[in-house]
Amino acid sequence: MEKKILHLTVNGEPHELYIHPKKLLVEILRDELGLTGTKRGCNTGACGACTVLLDGAAVKSCSVLAVQADGAEVTTVEGLADGARLTPLQRSFLDHGAFQCGFCTSGMLMSATAFLREDPAPKDIKEGIQGNICRCTGYNSILRAIKAVAEGKYKEEGR
Amino acid sequence: MKKYSVINTPVHNIDGIAKITGRAKYTFDITLPRMLHGKILRSFYPHAEILDIDTTKAERLSGVKAVVTGKDTLGLKQGIWRRFKELCDEEILTRDKVRYIGEPVAAVAAVDEDTAEEALDLIEVEYKPLPGVFEPLEAIKEGAPQLHDQAERNINVTRHIEWGDVDEGFKKADYIREDWFRCSSQAHVCMETHCAVADYTPEGRLTVYTSTQSHYYIKVLLAEILGLRENDVRVISRYTGGGFGSKFELDSAQFCSSLLSMKLYQPVKIVLTREEEFTATKRRTPMFYYVRSGVKKDGTFLAKEARVFTEGGAYTAMGATALYLTGFFQSFPYVWPSYRYDGYRVYTNTAPTSAMRGFGAPQATFCAETQIDLIADELGIDPIEIRRKNAMYPGYEVPGQATIQSCGLSQCLDKIDEWIKSRGKLPANRGIGIAAYGFMSGGIFNWFDTPYAFSSAIIQINIDGKVDLYVGSQDMGQGSNTTMALICAEELGVKFEDIRLHMGDTENCPVDLGAWGSRETLMQGNAVKMAASKAKQQILEFATAKLAPNIVYDLDIKDSWIHLIARPERGLSYYDVVKEAIRGKDGQPIIARGHYTPHRKGMISPAYSFGVQAVEADVDPDTGKITLKNCVTAHDCGQVINPLGVQGQLEGAIAMAAGYGFTEDLPMDEGKILNPNLVDYMLLRATEMPETKVMEVETYEPEGPFGAKEAGEGLTNPTAGALGNAVFHAAGISIKNLPIMPEKVLNALKEKKRK
């Protein structure tokens, strides 16, 4: 297969890449752009560690071919904070100790970010991260962190 | 209780911002210039002789840089039980025989992963298949296929523990009960799979970045098997994406990447796939347990006898430790006047079994706690009452094994009793089960044969008062970095933010045996506290000279204020004194060392945690499905150092241990694991987690730093037993075969109806 040109906006930065069409989005993000905050835990779409936002929707980037994302806007965990200004979810994760080894954390944050954007006051928070596996925390600290944001306890910091 | 300024406050995890912004660099994220990618060819036979390996075609593939097999190694057998040569039985790249499906036979380095993968298909291995044996009770029979020449009837290790007069105890018993249990296997499922980047340079030095629980162990084991000097190997492991017991032995990614890099003088990265992680790394030890207990009519324990056959898999690994610990913790946390244990670890043609969070104790606790509820039920005694009557207490000596210093078990039972009563009458098909447990705070054993102190720490205080703390402990997510910084700040009397922690690099950090056996808080914590105390003494000498108090007064530092303890308002700023002290030392920073090795603390551990857990669950009589409702734990970990960390450990342990109890299993067919992926291997998702509640029981452990003891691993022990007992009280069935899956529940319900 011939290489193809791919246009991608990642965390607000436009990129033009020359890639093999069978490359996955997660590979492009990590290997071509050096955005290693996005992890890979299974490569079969089961664990959620590679979750990113694709035009605002949470997707598992190991289940998306990079060429399918041509022209799209991608947000990774590196695109959440603005310098030292963390997002409400990030601050809440810190306060609630909602991570341990941290390997699933990027995916958790991206799933939760999309989930709260879609419905800022969700009834069942567990649904928001049911596609993400965490082997360390038992999820409850993550659920408390998301709930605190949903309840408005963390405001967006002024920019 | 003493009041502290830093410990037991809810600080942010010291690595938190790096982790939530995606900046934390794990081994999985490391890329070096000229780096190659490696893949490992693994056996698909459970038992076979290797007649020939032809790598010519693979070597000719464009992009392939090197292929290695057992012939490229020194042919040494390695193992973590280094004091016992016969237990060092694994070559990693095997030369003449494969003993399990997934055993490495060759490794390839290529320009990218796809090329390396393609090359694996071109390696021709000629096998002569041998009959295999997969169950320990079969493997131990005369005439069964033998895995290792030195192990007749496949017996790898045996263990005997005994105290008191067991036979006499049974004679005196009013009631005797015996049961057989089968405890299943479990996969660790670290989110970061095993991986390593090895970089060998012409100076003869090897640097290995790897995801590990003990950089010290990996350095020593690599040096030994590669024929290098210990300090020509540097192991770096800044962030580790989960461990749970799977990452402190030398693994195939570390060994094969090193071997390839030494051949090529180029960095080589190997990352195991999720499937390899399931099939070719080690796992929790399956156990077949026979347990017989004799008690008085009033429930007083008299005598216990336990025999276990464990499925060892193909190699020793850490299985010998699990065999001892399961026997010891089978008696826990109770006073048994007499006890006899015989354990047999048996080689089988299955993936080796080894350490996993709880280290043999979850299996033992499941059997013991299930049987105690059955005894209580027969005798008409309340489950809390029978445990209270026989609970360990402060000062109790386990004959010949251990001395219990702090022990809050009775208070834990009180708290759980209160909680159960607060639940009132439960709806139909719902039950509450309890289990009591205890665990060690680091192992005393030195089968690794280290000549170093078990833990060491170095402190350097700089001109601005910032403290450089160097530790050998490994943070794999359990939070030891935060815990060590808290202990250091508390002892020195400075702010948590004043501590700059250095870890995860054998070149700059002192030796610590690593994060396993719940050892860091007590052992590394004691070393940190000692170093901080010595550094503080140096500062106080200068402060004393300056303040010139009456000689009978003592000084201390708290909240960065150096003061007379008797007159706290009289003092000096820590920051000012540090500046002058360094000037006074001819410009040298303040440096101090601390270390810890347990001496004369029994056979197992210097201190023990205790707790009681209650699980409330529904059992659907039509489907056999179990739904967890509540999981409440009363918990004695001594003085809490990091409250957010303890809560996280507790909830995480529940998820993992409940999985062990009712969803996670590794079914096999002739040594082949049938569900090596995250779809078919059922670990708990957020939607299945019950409500969790923790009630801390504060005790003071004299052996621990500030009275602290273990708080992470032991919490994996009670859940399967408590869950089984909840099913017993909900549905009147006792399942002695883990995991308690719907099919087993339905069969037991049918059986119960027939009777």
Write the CATH homologous superfamily of the largest domain in chain A.
Answer: Beta-grasp domain
Can you tell me the CATH architecture of the largest domain in chain B? 2-Layer Sandwich
**Radius of gyration of chain B, Cα only, in angstroms?**
27 Å
Tell me the Rg of chain A in angstroms. Answer: 16 Å
Tally the structural domains of chain B.
3
Q: List the uncertain runs of chain A.
A: none
Task: Trace the largest sheet of chain A across and list its strands.
Answer: 2-1-5-3-4
Q: Can you identify the CATH class of the largest domain in chain B?
A: Alpha Beta
CATH topology of the largest domain in chain B: Aldehyde Oxidoreductase, domain 4
Question: Domains counted in the coordinates of chain A: how many?
Answer: 2
The biggest beta sheet of chain A, please?
5 strands, mixed
Structure in a nutshell:
The complex is a heterodimer of chains A (159) and B (755). Chain A is of the alpha+beta class and 159 residues long.
Would you give an account of this structure?
- The complex is a heterodimer of chains A (159) and B (755).
- With 159 residues, chain A is an alpha+beta fold.
- Chain A has 2 domains: 76 residues, Beta-grasp domain (Ubiquitin-like (UB roll), Roll); 63 residues, DNA polymerase, domain 1, CATH 1.10.150.
- Helices cover 26% and strands 16% of the residues of chain A.
- A 5-stranded mixed beta sheet of chain A has the order 2-1-5-3-4, sandwiched between helices.
- In chain A, β1 and β2 form a beta hairpin.
- The longest helix of chain A is centred in the last third of the chain and has 14 residues.
- Chain A is globular, with a radius of gyration of 16 Å.
- Chain A starts with a strand and ends in a 9-residue tail after the last helix.
- Chain B has 755 residues and is of the alpha+beta class.
- Chain B folds into 3 domains: 151 residues, Aldehyde oxidase/xanthine dehydrogenase, molybdopterin binding domain (Aldehyde Oxidoreductase, domain 4, 2-Layer Sandwich); 193 residues, Aldehyde oxidase/xanthine dehydrogenase, a/b hammerhead (Aldehyde Oxidoreductase, domain 3), CATH 3.90.1170; 239 residues, Aldehyde oxidase/xanthine dehydrogenase, molybdopterin binding domain (Aldehyde Oxidoreductase, domain 4, 2-Layer Sandwich).
- Helix content of chain B is 28%, strand content 25%.
- Chain B contains 18 helices and 32 strands.
- In chain B, the strands form 9 sheets. In chain B, strands 3-5-1-12-9-10-11 form a 7-stranded mixed beta sheet, with helices on both faces. Chain B has a 5-stranded mixed beta sheet with strand order 7-16-15-14-8, with helices on both faces.
- In chain B, α10 runs parallel beside α17.
- Chain B is globular, with a radius of gyration of 27 Å.
- The mean pLDDT of chain B is 97.
- Classes of the chains: A alpha+beta (159), B alpha+beta (755).
- At the A-B interface, α2, α3 and α4 of A face α1 and α16 of B.
